[in-house]
Amino acid sequence: MPTQEEIAAVFPEMMARFQPEKAEGTNVTIQFDLSGDNGGLYWVTIADGTAEYGEGSKEADMTVKASADDFYALVNGDLNPMQAVMFGKVKVSDVGLGMKMMSIFNLG
Questions:
Q1: Domain SCP2 spans what residues (predicted)?
Q2: pLDDT averaged per 10 residues in sequence order, the chain, 108 residues
Q3: What's the pLDDT at 58?
Q4: Cβ neighbourhood burial of 24 (10 Å; 0-12, 13-18, 19+)
Q5: Within 13 A of 74's CA, how many CA atoms are on the CB side?
Q6: How far apart are CA 43 and CA 50, in angstroms?
Q7: Selecting from 3.30.1050.10, 3.40.30.10, 3.40.50.720, 3.40.50.300, what CATH number does the domain 4-104 have?
């Protein structure tokens, strides 16, 4: 089980994986609602070819809901994104945008 620190460290790593050329024309905010002992609220905003993140709640274009454990497994490649969504381990309010985010952050 990942610690709170490991969960929080996912977001700076996402920024390191950010591919601005794939984000051209994308201006969105994504809210991550992670449940469980090590969960929390996080957000990522993509605008004008840049990405930033933070903790807390922010008005979002898409929401991702998952247990902190499942989210951590997903971003580390231990959980298949399509299976995670199909089996309800990860709930995404906009699947099309979710797929685009996987590409923009080179995940999965």
A1: 20-105
A2: 94 95 95 96 96 97 97 92 92 92 85
A3: 95
A4: exposed
A5: 24
A6: 14
A7: 3.30.1050.10
